[in-house]
Write a sequence for this structure.
């Protein structure tokens, strides 16, 4: 069994900074050492002894509280549900305890247990669902070699999501420093990263492009650059290579169901075609006639994925690819899910909202390529006879603004 | 399209897109306005580039071999001028 998170970080130098964050623009950085984090976590355990072996939900409020809770409850509670900041509609079992408790009974001799971690993901129907993970699975790709201790990671993702949690765990387990820049304006985030001398950064291609609009990115002493969550295109990879020569630049291909799949470090978009014949470490890959990418890892896929696994044990990732002479290049999702800067948009959900507008009899929503955010949402509508099209566009735009999140908004309504 | 026509076209598009994307633009947007401080966020900016692609028939940012990201409004317009000339010539 993998030791719990708290056990794994106990050997780091206690006075080394574990976490830095800024409480407001222009304010000095708050720095929390490993020792302070561990103490807070132990106190939380003590005050929450009735949560031992129970499932807990961790509503996200603040990074320091969030990380000390992870340390306190992993290996102590049976399950950790990482509740998104805006995830109140997620169905959580009534029997699950929340972490706010003032029960100060000293805990008995409690044995560490393997906690299940639950992360919220947007399911295929657009409704969020819980995906179960273990600490072992979540930390499979964490690099703990001695030099990684000197890194200072910028956390640009929400820490309760898969990508953000990967950065949090990488930083904690390697004894590095984590700098919270998961929220705020681009310039402000770059200011904080510059103040903290962030030298390792993992972000979506869309976010990298936003950072590139500011001259402040080039001033960061970056040593390690990672792109993930969307398709990484060649011009962006070229720009980053030119800006940070000699650094490690990698883009990650990950499928939610298959977990982290592989990293490409040759600075080229897609991945080498030879992986299809030779595999990639313990992973086998193939492309079918419909251009879907299939993967087969060493472990069996979860039973709920059975309808996507073929007789040879390969999982259909439902990612569309194109083969060139040397590379396998990603095209997008076969299901039609639109990826707007790393945010998934389900066309059916947007279509339903559009159809609520009087005067619209049919709607089709699809993705349009965007050189800035990967994709954008477009809509084609059919109006009932004798409808004023101009006036209808105003009404449907307003309705969508009221009912949808911003990244779900169609750029254009075509008739 | 002349330079000033192109600039006006981009300005009009900027206003339209700000409305669609629900962005509050700063007034006035001048040549020196820093794009990241114009009130247009990444979604609004992506929509602007996509909308201009629909209307002008080209997207400089998909054509660049090494992506260049403009800092100010004038730099943004400059990139479109350069690519307009390229498209007219080629």
């Amino acid at each position: 069994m993998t030791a719990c998170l708290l056990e794994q970080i106990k050997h780091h130098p206690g006075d080394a900074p574990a976490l830095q964050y800024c409480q407001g623009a222009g304010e000095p950085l708050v720095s929390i050492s490993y020792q302070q984090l561990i103490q807070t976590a132990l106190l939380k355990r003590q005050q929450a002894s009735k949560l031992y072996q129970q499932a807990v939900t961790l509503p996200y409020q603040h990074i320091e509280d969030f990380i000390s809770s992870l340390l306190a409850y992993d290996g102590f509670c049976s399950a950790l549900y990482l509740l998104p900041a805006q995830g109140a509609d997620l169905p959580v079992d009534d029997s699950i305890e929340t972490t706010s408790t003032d029960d100060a009974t000293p805990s008995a001799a409690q044995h560490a247990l393997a906690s299940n971690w639950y992360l919220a993901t947007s399911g295929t129907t657009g409704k969020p669902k819980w995906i179960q993970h273990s600490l072992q699975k979540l930390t499979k790709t964490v690099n703990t070699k001695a030099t990684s201790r000197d890194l200072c990671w910028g956390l640009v993702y929400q820490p309760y999501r898969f990508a953000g949690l990967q950065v949090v765990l990488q930083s904690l387990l390697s004894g590095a420093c984590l700098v919270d820049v998961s929220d705020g304006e681009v310039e402000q985030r770059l200011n904080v990263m510059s103040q903290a001398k962030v030298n390792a950064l993992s972000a979506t291609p869309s976010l990298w492009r936003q950072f590139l609009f500011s001259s402040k990115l080039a001033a960061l002493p970056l040593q390690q650059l990672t792109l993930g969550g969307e398709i990484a295109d060649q011009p962006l990879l070229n720009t980053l290579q030119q800006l940070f020569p000699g650094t490690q630049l990698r883009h990650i291909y990950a499928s939610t169901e298959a977990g982290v799949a592989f990293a490409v470090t040759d600075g080229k978009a897609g991945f080498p075609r030879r992986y299809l014949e030779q595999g990639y470490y313990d992973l086998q890959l193939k492309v079918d006639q419909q251009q879907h990418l299939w993967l087969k890892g060493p472990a069996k896929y979860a039973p709920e994925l059975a309808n996507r696994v073929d007789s040879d044990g390969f999982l259909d990732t439902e990612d569309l690819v194109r083969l060139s002479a040397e590379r396998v290049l990603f095209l997008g999702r076969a299901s039609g899910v639109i990826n707007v800067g790393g945010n998934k948009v389900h066309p059916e959900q947007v279509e339903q909202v559009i159809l609520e507008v009087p005067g619209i009899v049919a709607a089709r929503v699809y993705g349009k390529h965007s050189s800035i955010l990967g994709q954008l949402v477009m809509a084609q509508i059919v109006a009932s006879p004798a409808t004023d099209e101009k006036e209808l566009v105003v009404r449907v735009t307003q309705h969508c603004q009221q009912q949808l999140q911003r990244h779900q908004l169609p750029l254009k309504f075509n008739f | 399209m002349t330079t000033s026509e192109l600039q006006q076209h981009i300005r009009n598009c900027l206003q339209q897109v700000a409305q669609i994307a629900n962005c509050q633009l700063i007034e006035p947007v001048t040549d020196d306005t820093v794009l990241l401080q114009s009130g247009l966020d990444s979604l609004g900016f992506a929509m602007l580039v996509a909308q201009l692609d629909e209307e002008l028939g080209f997207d400089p940012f998909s054509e660049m071999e090494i992506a260049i990201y403009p800092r100010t409004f004038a730099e943004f317009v400059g990139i479109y001028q350069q690519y307009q000339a390229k498209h007219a010539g080629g």
